[in-house]
Amino acid sequence: MSATRVCALSELQQDEARRVEIDGVPMAVVLDGNGEVHAIGDTCTHGDISLSDGFVEGDTLECWAHGSAFSLRTGKPLNLPAYEPVPVYEVTIEGDDVLIDPAVTKNVD
Ligand code: FES
Question: What are the residue boundaries of the Rieske domain, all occurrences included (predicted)?
Fold first, then answer.
């Protein structure tokens, strides 16, 4: 699959997460304080909770349910109770379009 447009860059609010879906796969898209756009899997690995309902802190997205903060760069939770990472997706910006290829993950070990 190729990259799919998920939203306009101008629709993103800084330090807020936006839930998008590509073919039923939920993702959280975040414009961080440095103007970088990230996309990670939207489902917390500790429970069936949407991470985009959580809180952006620097380059992390914190699950509101029990407080695990996931790195927007590596997908890894930085604290318990979650211990499994979420996928990190490659984001491309073309003009005002935010594109994600759900087949391309870039998790770092
Ligand atoms: S459901 Fe996310 S930390 Fe528990």
Answer: 4-100
Task: Give the nearest ligand 1 atom to 49 CA.
Answer: 1
CA of 19 to the centre of ligand 1 (A): 17
pTM, 2 dp: 0.95
Q: Is 90 exceeded by the pLDDT of residue 28? A: yes
Ligand 1 environment, Cβ below 6 A: 44, 46-47, 49, 63, 65-66, 68, 81-82
* Residue found by looking up tokens 């800084």 in the block: 14
Give me ligand 1 centre to Cα 93, in Å: 30
Region of 17 on the Ramachandran plot (φ > 0 left; ψ -120 to 50 alpha; else beta): beta
Q: Do the Cβ atoms of 17 and 52 come closer than 8 Å? A: yes
pLDDT value, residue 104: 81
- Of all protein residues, the one whose alpha carbon is nearest to atom 1 of ligand 1 is 47
